[in-house]
Design brief:
- 0% of the residues lie in helices and 32% in strands.
- The strands form 2 sheets. A 3-stranded antiparallel β-sheet has the order 1-3-2, with no helix packed on it. It has a two-stranded antiparallel sheet with strand order 4-5.
- It has 62 residues and is an all-beta fold.
- It has one domain (4-50).
Length: 62
């Protein structure tokens, strides 16, 4: 699992509060440490998705 620092505010599953995948959120840096290829469940669609997925039902981390 290769984790990278990503910016928040990008419409990807890893940056959405409705995604259950593993990540670490750093609000002071406005960054998320995540493996984009990691799996999680979307709580809106109830489907397994990758962190790099894109969805119109996006709710950003704050």
């Amino acid at each position: 699992m290769s984790q990278e620092m990503k910016d928040i505010g990008i419409k990807r599953c890893y940056a959405c509060i409705q995604w259950t995948g593993q990540r670490t959120f750093y609000p002071e840096k406005k960054k998320i440490k995540v493996d984009e290829g990691g799996d999680g469940v979307c709580l809106m669609t109830h489907q397994k998705t990758k962190g790099s997925g894109h969805c119109e039902q996006y709710f950003p981390l704050r």
